[in-house]
Design goal:
Blueprint (H helix, E strand, L loop, with lengths): L7 H7 L25 H15 L2 H12 L23 H15 L10 H15 L33 H9 L5 H7 L7 E3 L5 H4 L13 H10 L9 E3 L11 H7 L6 H8 L4 H9 L1 H15 L21
Antiparallel strand pairs: 1-2
Length: about 325
């Protein structure tokens, strides 16, 4: 599966899966499988729906996996991208969502080995977003699965939790994504969880003058301290959105207005006057946010994809052919 540009915020939760130069493939298109597997989107949607009913964790896990797209397991002495230390917390339910959807697709004789794991993941991501209350949108398809995955490609490619707006914009712009795209995609933090170790510095060691980050709402900081006491196991999890953690909605932006962004790179979207108007707009307008999000995730899905002879269609999403 191809390893595309990864969203800044999800990198901090789940790791990083590789960075490719910004490319847009004209070969991606809607209804790509119309002639070989015309019902593929229905098949995937049904499989994803069953998985989400089994566990709501699949929603955030699948979204994060799409942003990472590092499905390869290591084989032999090779360490794949997902085996990099920054990727070790990738939730297994995201992988399982794709595995189950792939099995459902391949169970249809005309579809067997005709649909890539990368495309199944793209469709599954749209479906979990819709199932959790977010927008539905047409998915461009035609990706091939990658033929290599190395942990060494991860190093130095992810943003840090303390990144400021300039650093975020630089990283996203390098992959053809604007500040507006970055802010919209950051709303993935409206679902899912993080580990205490990823943000504990904001609660206890932010600076010499202010041990607690002053941009954090005081009550929210106290809540996080109760969930993540000093010296607690850093892998203890906390929901990203304290208001509606299982719903894909604009609450993320309302949280930022109230000083309830879990990471510094979340909260900076409101504290920096250049991105604050966008946050304020989307905090009140669901339609404006959803329109921007659909545009941004569609652009994200075009970054670094493999098409044609640059990849293949995996028989098993967890291994090379």
């Amino acid at each position: 599966m191809d390893a595309r540009f990864v969203l800044a915020w999800s990198l901090l939760i789940l790791g990083f899966c590789g960075l490719f130069p910004y490319t847009v493939s004209a070969q991606l298109k809607q209804n790509y499988y119309a002639n070989v597997c015309p019902n593929v989107e229905t098949i995937v949607r049904d499989a994803v729906g069953k998985k989400v009913k089994q566990t709501s964790v699949a929603v955030a896990a699948t979204i994060r996996l799409f942003f990472h797209d590092c499905f390869v397991q290591s084989t032999g002495s090779n360490k794949a991208e997902k085996d990099h230390p920054d990727n070790l917390s990738l939730a297994g339910d995201g992988f399982d969502t794709v595995i189950k959807a792939k099995a459902a697709v391949d169970a249809v004789p005309s579809c067997k080995n005709k649909v890539s794991c990368a495309d199944i993941l793209a469709m599954a991501t749209r479906d979990v977003i819709t199932l959790s209350g977010g927008p539905s949108y047409a998915v461009e398809l035609g990706r091939m699965d990658g033929v290599s995955s190395n942990a060494t490609s991860v190093e130095g490619k992810l943003p840090k939790p303390f990144f400021n707006l300039d650093q975020l914009n630089t990283m996203f712009a390098a992959n053809g994504l604007s500040q507006t795209d970055m802010v919209a995609l950051s709303a993935a933090h409206t679902v899912g969880f993080s580990h205490c170790g990823q943000f504990a510095n904001r609660l206890y060691n932010f600076s010499r003058q202010n041990p607690v980050d002053a941009t954090l709402d005081k009550n929210y900081a106290a809540q996080l301290q109760s969930q993540c006491p000093k010296n607690v196991d850093p892998t203890i999890v906390v929901t990203m959105d304290p208001i509606s953690p299982n719903t894909f909605d604009k609450a993320y932006f309302k949280n930022l207005q109230q000083g309830k962004g879990l990471f510094s790179l979340d909260q900076v979207l409101f504290t920096d006057t250049r991105s604050r108007p966008t946050v304020n707009n989307w905090a009140v307008s669901t339609s404006a946010f959803e329109t921007a999000f659909v545009s941004a995730i569609t652009k994200l899905g075009r970054v670094g994809v493999k098409t044609g002879k640059n990849g293949n269609i995996r028989r098993d999403c967890s291994a090379f052919n």
